[in-house]
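This part of the workshop introduces the protein records we will be handling. Each record describes a single protein and holds just a pair of labelled lines. Instead of coordinates, the fold is spelled out as a row of discrete tokens. To make this concrete, we reproduce a full record directly below:
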Amino acid sequence: MLHQCENFGNNVNVHTWCMWLLQQYVDVNYRTYLGGNFNVSDADSFQIALFPILHICIHVSSLPHYEELGELILILLPRSQHLLLPMEIALSLHKSQTPLLGSSSPGNLSSLGRCFASKERDRCHPFSRICCSSMKRGLKPKPKKVGHAERQVTVFEDNAFRKPSSSGICRQIEKLVMCNRYREAMEWFEILEVGHDGFDVGGSTYDALVSACVCLRSIRGVKRVYSYMINSGFEPDLFVMNRVLFMHVRCGLMLDARKLFDEMPERDSASWMTMIGGLVDTGNFSEAFRLFLCMWEEINDGGSRTFVTMIRASAGLGLVQVGRQIHSCALKRGVGDDNFVSCSLIDMYSKCGSIEDAHCVFDQMPEKTTVGWNSIIASYALHGYSEEALSLYCGMRDSGATIDHFTISIVIRICARLASLEHAKQAHAALVRHGYGTDIVANTALVDFYSKWGRMQDAQHVFNRMRCKNIISWNALIGGYGNHGQGEEAVEMFEQMLQEGMIPNHVTFLAVLSACSYSGLSERGWEIFHSMSRDHKVKPRAMHYACMIELLGREGLLDEAYALIRSAPFKPTTNMWAALLTACRMNENLELGKLAAEKLYGMEPEKLCNYVVLLNLYNSCGKLKEAAGVLQTLKRKGLRMLSACSWIEVKKQPYVFLCGDKSHSQTKEIYDKVDSLMVEISRYGYAVENETLLPDVDEEEQRILKYHSEKLAIAFGLINTPYWTPLQITQGHRVCGDCHNAIKLIAKVTGREIVIKDASRFHHFRNGSCSCGDYW
């Protein structure tokens, strides 16, 4: 039959017969093969039937549908259990040299034959892999618009299956890099490495290869290219050497970079600044200065980039005098007014603690850019001058400077510090108005702000609208729910985060364990704690142990809490002992409380709050003599208990109150309101808790107990705000027990929600109860 078909030549009937026979096997066997049911016997029969058809195809070059036939071969050969027959097919095609595919296709079946023939000899040869991939692309072409350079690459691939010369490979590499096809360029470099000595490779090719490695961030590729370059006897020019040096620095290989830098026969300012910049980025500021002085002696070149880098080094060292010398040099060089230099100077002076110098540099900027404004606002915020920073933001807005997402992020953090809800809402509106409504940094700052101030609905709304969320966004929301006593919601968000494939870190576990601790979710908290190292490979730290100690303390399991401290795989920290001391105060356990206090005194002898907690423990247990001893210790150490202060924002204006404060213009109204509230809540069983008083207070101080700062702030808020709005109050100290009980009843009789952030946590008072569960 094969002989008869060969004699027919290009007869149409032969065409029809061959394609009909091929189609039968394609319909029956090929489709079965694609369905996954093609077993070994089917493969053998398919190959036996296909073999004579292929011989016909070799001699009948005008048969149609060769692309389908080639695709069929490519699918069959890799999964075949018997390589002999497929190899015969491929070798027959190779010997025939018949172009079975049209000139418009990037590959041909003869190339496939050579590819498989070479695969038999060396299965790992890179040229074979490229031929296979090119052949596969050629047999299944995808129409695509290409530029002139890409069209040249494709044309080259048509002829690439004849082993190309090194010059051809070099041209191919350069064209691929021009088309941003960096990985393919490195594949062609593999061919160059294996089959060519590289003596005729030019500098432009090496430059293209190094550029490809830089774009791929492949330090291994750079090392291969550089090694091949040196072994081939090529002397790289300064530009190529700078790129190789830059790649080493970019990947953090500073020792290798320094060795390469020292071996460079020629160095320019780019070489020096690449090395110095790498040292600054890795925190080696002293060595950066030493190298800077060497550069100054050798080339005496200093542009704006040089001074920006050295100013960063000065900030890293925290030496303002060195920074001033660099500033002086920049002025002498005429680059002191450069915007990048000015912004770096503002940052340096701020980090060195000289906010006045930072503002002086800002005032002298010829053009106050967005970056300049952001730098000075961030500087004031860094040093706690929140009101001044907010004032500068208003000045930036009025000046017409462009406000970006970084500006808004800073302002939101300032508002969080000032407890300024109105300004934060304005910043939120500006975020949307300026087109940064989807920015992850600014939106995460908003989630954090709303979470910190109990606006969990607003926080959840911002979070849900974020197109992209990172672990910081999730942590902010989970922590917000936990801090405000909504432990169930925090655990739910944690589980949702895991379902979406986000990997938790130690901050995530701290947030969710704190939520379980605040809400008393003991069983769920222990499950999450044990899953840290078991499922997520996160080792529990001291803060995680402190959460579990607090959780045990809330249940009254103080012996188990103490055992957990002793079983920790590291030395117990102050947080762990402080959690145990707080648990002892709430459960009135003197023995363990004194033990925890002694540990804390040895670790933090000057920290006042440790003494205050023990003092409250003695008072609650009726140990007035021991409480007096604690007071004597405080006096001997010179530690004074400062007056507590509270503040509240009304109509965008913060108001601060001290204990017994009478300096406010509405003092009479405020005190009358407090007195009336005390009368109302006394009907619900309120009585002053005298046991919380210190043992040596006089009658006047007992009277002042009724006018603690948080009670004055609440009265002021009730007078000056609409009845449907919640009160947001910040307290610098821990809320005392008497005020805590009083505020629960005030929230009940007034029907208002009162949110107080004290030194330990947030308290949400609603309808006679608090979110802390009376454990704080």
Strands lie at 645-650, 653-658, 727-731, 754-757, 762-766, 769-770. The radius of gyration is 38 Å. The chain has a mean pLDDT of 77. The first helix runs from residue 2 to 8.
